[in-house]
Amino acid sequence: MPRPPPPAWHLLGFSLFLASVCVSLESAAQGNSAADALNVLLIIVDDLRPSLGCYGDKLVRSPNIDQLASHSILFQNAFAQQAVCAPSRVSFLTGRRPDTTRLYDFNSYWRVHAGNFSTIPQHFKENGYMTMSVGKVFHPGISSNHSDDSPYSWSFAPYHPSSEKYENTKTCRGEDGELHANLLCPVDMADVPEGTLPDKQSTEEAIRLLEKMKTSTSPFFLAVGYHKPHIPFRYPKEFQKLYPLENITLAPDPQVPDGLPRVAYNPWMDIREREDVQALNISVPYGPIPVDFQRKIRQSYFASVSYLDTQVGRLLSALDDLHLVNNTIIAFTSDHGWALGEHGEWAKYSNFDVTTRVPLMFYVPGRTASLPGAGEKLFPYRSPFDPTSELMDSGRHTEDLVELVSLFPTLAGLAGLQVPPRCPIPSFHVELCREGQKLLKYFQLHDSEEDPYFHGNPRDLIAYSQYPRPADSPQWNSDKPNLKDIKIMGYSIRTIDYRYTVWVGFNPGEFLANFSDIHAGELYFVDSDPLQDHNVYNDSQHGELPQSLKP
Ligand SMILES: *[C@@H]1O[C@H](CO)[C@@H](O)[C@H](O)[C@H]1NC(C)=O
Ligand SMILES: *[C@@H]1O[C@H](CO)[C@@H](O)[C@H](O)[C@H]1NC(C)=O
Ligand SMILES: *[C@@H]1O[C@H](CO)[C@@H](O)[C@H](O)[C@H]1NC(C)=O
Ligand SMILES: *[C@@H]1O[C@H](CO)[C@@H](O)[C@H](O)[C@H]1NC(C)=O
Ligand SMILES: *[C@@H]1O[C@H](CO)[C@@H](O)[C@H](O)[C@H]1NC(C)=O
Ligand SMILES: *[C@@H]1O[C@H](CO)[C@@H](O)[C@H](O)[C@H]1NC(C)=O
Ligand SMILES: *[C@@H]1O[C@H](CO)[C@@H](O)[C@H](O)[C@H]1NC(C)=O
């Protein structure tokens, strides 16, 4: 197994509080042995919008993720490239945008369909790391060749929790005492098949792997993919108590906005399939859902987030107990967000901030926080049921716009591996290159060829997202059109000041967008309309903007 190269970091104007710890890191780097290389723990959550204490949410209890944030750099404005699982994951795990992976649905494997692109874990594996996958990292199925991209990405077979198979079965006890396949699914742990839940099993497996890594001679890259708060909201019922229904508000903008083009709306078909939602006989495509049920959905989403938080807490506390916190980078993110009634929607599948914006934070030992002293823990487990858990120093934040596609070069750079070179256009024939940015300057890491992206005004930073549609009006497959049915692509840019989207003709055979064929447009200004309810596209001079939509 090849040894990893020494971290190619050089210190640049680090702040005083980091000065002493940086010295020890620098000497560690000079050691140039596998034992000194930094490990990586990448936590990927499914459908998690930044409804977290550390993102300013006053209701949600997430003390363990907040504690991670307090020792991290947190990106306030991080965006996914497409708000649906498989396309987003394949995009950020390969460091390429959906127009390069050519995956907008669930039905192709990029290595045969687009190009033989390297992945983040593959890059670490090829540089001497033990790479391990637990839970949902790649989206399962065709999009990762039914193998989570094994053997290319992983040192051994990925782990999937055995209780995952019950997620969509009748395991939710309804008011009638019978078991149903519901959307709202608070469970009694004594009552569920196998007596456990997938995320709990994943945490246990991840901890078991970390214990094994303690004695490993190679550094590790461990990716842990959590399922909650993805639907159904199947979580231990005690978490419901954190969110009394009378304290749950509706979305601030629960109506479908007047000026929203029909093509931009997605009819959230998947929750309608759950038995409890079906029983409500909700009108397709616009609803609405009765307000008491809206509150219950929000309650269960937030309860799922707190349950997830306890799993993250157990995992990080174990990392700490194993004394791995001083040499492990921790990255935390999600594949995309989820609308909890905003714009009358209850799903991902759109270009709004509420579905494209994701939590993103990086803990880098000695850089974003001082190393723990002897006997000290950075990540003691914190119970969301303990009210004192609310008090938490917020750590360092940046409001700069960043994209998930930048995760690959950033993790490579932070670990001191070769950062993939910028991709040529097109890059289908290039196996290892990056379409995102190296976010190294946020860590005071010197970057020999710093991205021109960062030289200008932060107002010029852009995050790109896109979403396909089969038709101009919402229909049964508007949420998740198959490639052959895509007729329109919504290309969207977000800057610190606005979100601008054009829905243009798209030919799925040629993968060609026609920017002369504009079906609809959206423009929202962040300051005056942060929730994106007042589309001012028609009022604006937008003749020149479409040029900037191509990344
Ligand atoms: C794709 O990349 C993998 C990993 O580098 C390599 O083993 C494989 O041979 C490549 N496949 C093709 C068709 O080039
Ligand atoms: C996908 O999986 C199949 C079945 O295991 C295998 O034969 C094929 O080589 C894999 N594709 C690639 C590109 O590795
Ligand atoms: C619910 O709201 C009330 C009134 O604001 C507050 O006193 C109480 O602490 C809240 N309960 C929870 C669990 O947040
Ligand atoms: C913008 O103009 C188009 C074309 O005239 C029209 O169909 C659409 O309803 C207008 N949108 C808004 C928000 O006024
Ligand atoms: C469902 O709603 C439709 C109208 O929206 C109504 O015609 C139908 O009777 C309802 N079905 C049930 C079972 O309530
Ligand atoms: C991390 O801590 C362990 C145990 O305290 C120690 O053996 C190891 O040398 C430390 N590593 C670094 C990089 O500081
Ligand atoms: C692009 O759209 C314009 C306007 O609808 C149309 O005239 C043109 O033929 C289209 N181009 C292609 C290549 O389809």
UniProtKB/TrEMBL annotation:
CDD domains: iduronate-2-sulfatase (cd16030). Keywords: Calcium, Disulfide bond, Glycoprotein, Hydrolase, Lysosome, Metal-binding, Signal, Zymogen. Its main location: other. Its cofactor is Ca(2+). InterPro entries: Alkaline_phosphatase_core_sf, IDS, Sulfatase_CS, Sulfatase_N. It comes from the Eukaryota. GO terms for molecular function: calcium ion binding; iduronate-2-sulfatase activity. Its EC number is 3.1.6.13. Residues 39-416 form the Sulfatase N-terminal domain. GO terms for cellular component: lysosomal lumen. Residues 1-24 form the signal peptide. It catalyses: Hydrolysis of the 2-sulfate groups of the L-iduronate 2-sulfate units of dermatan sulfate, heparan sulfate and heparin. It is found in: Lysosome. Pfam families: Sulfatase. GO terms for biological process: dermatan sulfate proteoglycan catabolic process; glycosaminoglycan catabolic process; heparan sulfate proteoglycan catabolic process. Belongs to the sulfatase family. Lysosomal enzyme involved in the degradation pathway of dermatan sulfate and heparan sulfate. Monomer. The 58-kDa mature form is composed of two chains resulting from proteolitic processing, the 42-kDa chain and the 14-kDa chain that remain stably associated and form the 58-kDa intermediate form which is enzymatically active. This is Iduronate 2-sulfatase. It comes from Nannospalax galili.
